[in-house]
Amino acid sequence: MADRISRRRLLTVASTSVIALRSASNIGSATQGTERILQESFESAPERTRPSGWTKSGTGVARVVVPDGGNSVAGSKIFGMFGSDDSCSSVSASHELDLQGRTWARFQVYVFPTDRGEDGCTSKRAGLSLHAGESESVTLVELTTDRTVRGPGSEPLGEYAERTWNELVVEYDRSGETVELTYTINGDSRGTISKPRQPAESDFSKLRLDAGVDIVWWDDIEVIASKKTESGSENLTEEGLGAAGGDGKGDSDTKSSIPEFNIFSTFVGGTVAIVVVIFTLLASLSGSGSRSKTSSQRQVTEEDVRDGLEEAEESLQQDRRR
């Protein structure tokens, strides 16, 4: 088990390394560094409540619960959701997301899908999407009841595992004429999907979690995005313009008049990224013992999973009956 965990850790580090090098290559152009814009582990929310900042919609239950067996990713709590068997409807939870003026984002979530629901009620078991207003949206990733991971347009991306934690990583790049979505599921690359830009592409401001009638757990959600820019096709904000240059007007004209600037920035950015990658790999190898212990705690037995499901289901059902 330790060898398997170690290999998965190296895959995760390698994926992070590629992202770091890709980000470095964009320094001096539209993408200038990254920052975390959302991190949620649900630990601060009281049990059997909806976490702060999340808005529920649809018919069903969305509550923080503590499953038995320590079966969580971060801490002891998870966000449990399921829709209504009676009406075959889904339930959603949305969180505001500061994507204005940003051209790239990386979404990393852990989801624990189950088959604890009415068979044949809905085909969607869980989903992650971006929204603008009431009608404009884009699907980032969707888990269907046939155990398939799907992207926009129901494009298949391989399988996922039931009754265990699945790590979903989606890179969302809208810096070009088309939108590119790159997928990594449980450390395995699942390819890239290209889709046309929507008129509302620059207006997405909410991240939404969806669950069908089956019980779904969510945990350890993180969104990292490029910093606000003064150039490109994004709608610009006053804050983004102010951060672009010392006078608040940006400095794209100055940079374009000095071609060597972009070359120097890319070289420096690439060097820094390589140093970070090497340091991360060394740290990963040297600390594999302690990390293996932490990771192995997530590899629970089938009995733990069953107990955790029953505990979470009982707690969620109590909320439903209220």
Automatic annotation (TrEMBL):
Sorted alphabetically, which keywords does the UniProt record give? Membrane, Transmembrane, Transmembrane helix
Please report the name of this protein according to its UniProt entry: Uncharacterized protein
Q: So where does this one cross the membrane?
A: 263-285
Segments of skewed composition (Basic and acidic residues):
300-309
Q: Which organism is it from?
A: Halorientalis regularis
The keyword Transmembrane helix is assigned to this record: yes
Q: Where is this region: Disordered?
A: 230-254, 287-322
UniProt biased composition (Low complexity): 287-299
